[in-house]
Amino acid sequence: MRTARAVASLPRRVYRDYLQAERLGELARLLRLALDRGYVAMTLSAFAELGAEPGGDARARILLLRHDIDSDVARARRIWALERELGIAGSWFFRRATWNVAFMRELAEAGCDVGYHYEELAILIKERGAGSAAEARRLIGPARALLRSSIGELRASSGLPLDLFAAHGDFANRVVGVSNVELLADPGFRAAIGARLEAYDIEGRVDGRASDGGLPHQYWSPLDPADALRRGERVVELLLHPRAWGAARAENARVDLRRLGDGWRYRIRRSRRQR
Fold first, then answer.
1. Do 74 and 22 touch, CB atoms closer than 8 A?
2. Which of 94, 177, 228, 252 is the most exposed place for a label (fewest CB within 10 A)?
3. What are residue 69's DSSP bridge partners?
C-alpha cells in the first residue's frame, strides 16, 4: 500500500521539485491578507509565554509562522526577505543539513526564533535498521544521548542559545510509526539539555493550522489558511518549507539522491535484522 501511494504521488513530486514556478508572490498575498485582517505575527516562543487568553484579550488575532528548513536555504532567505519587508518575525528551525550560522544569526538579531530541527531518532533508526515501533523506541535512550551531544556542539559553534526545537519528520519515522518528538517527551531530559520549547507543544492552542504541500491541485493541508483568516480564527499557524514554494532542480536532485541512498541502505540493514 505504501509503495502504491509513493508511485501515485511521483508525478506530483516531480512537478513540485523540478517544474513548479516560484510562488512567493502567493505567500506575500496571504501574509498581507493576515495583516489586513488584523492579525499580529508572533514567534512560537512568544506565544508559548502568553496565558490562555493571548494578551488578556480573547479578541486578539495571532499569526504564527513556523519555518522548517529541510532544504533550499537560498529560497529560505528569499522568504525571510519577504517577511522582513512586511515587518514579520517568525520561528525558524534548521537541520544539520541546512545549518547556516550567518543566516541564523541574522534571523535572531531581527527578533525571530532560531532553533534546531532535530532528527536524531530517525538517524539511529536508519543506522540500526529498526523496522518496528518497539525496535525504534529501544533506541530512544541512545538517540537522546546523541541529541545532547549534537546540541552542545551546535551551540558552541553558532553562539546561539538553540533552546527551541522542532522535530523533523523523516521517512524512517513514518515507516516505524515513531516520531522524533518522543525524544523530548521526558521533562527531565528537556531540562537537562535546556529545551525551552518543542514546536508541537503549542498546537493544542491553535485554532487553524495549515502546512504547505506544494502540489499542483492542493497547496495546503489540512485546510486553506486564507479561509481561516477570513473567518477570523483567533490563532492561525502556518508551517512553511522552502521546498514547497518553487522548483530548485540542482538542490532537489541532490536531496532526492541522498534520500534514495538512505532508503536503500536502510532497507538492507532492516532485512539483515529480520534474518
1. no
2. 177
3. 94
Which amino acid is it at 167? Answer: A
Question: Would you state the pLDDT for residue 1?
Answer: 47
DSSP-derived 3-state class of residue 93: strand
Looking from the CA of 162 toward its CB, the CA atoms found within 13 Å total 25
How many whole angstroms separate alpha carbon 145 and alpha carbon 137?
Answer: 14
Residue with cell 493576515: 34
**Assigned CATH topology for domain 23-274:** TIM Barrel (3.20.20)
- Please state, rounded to an integer, the average pLDDT across all residues of the chain: 92
List the Cα angle 138/142/143 in 5-degree steps: 95
DSSP state at residue 199: G
**For residue 59, is pLDDT > 70?**
no
pTM for the model stands at: 0.94
As given in the structure block, the three cell numbers for residue 40 are 499580529
The helix/strand/coil state of 162 is coil
- Copy the grid coordinates of residue 30: 496571504
> Cβ contacts of residue 233 below 8 Å, gap of 6+?
207, 208
User: What length is written for the chain?
Assistant: 275
CB 83 within 8 A of CB 264: no
Domain boundaries, the chain: 23-274
Does 58 score more than 70 pLDDT?
A: no
For 226: left if phi > 0, alpha if psi spans -120 to 50, otherwise beta; the answer is: alpha
Q: What angle do CA 241, 246, 248 make, to 5 degrees?
A: 95
| Rounded Cα distance, 167 and 151, in Å | 13
pLDDT tens track for 138-187: 999 999 999 999 999 999 999 999 999 999 999 999 999 999 999 999 99
Looking at the chain, the whole-number percentage of residues with pLDDT higher than 70 is 92
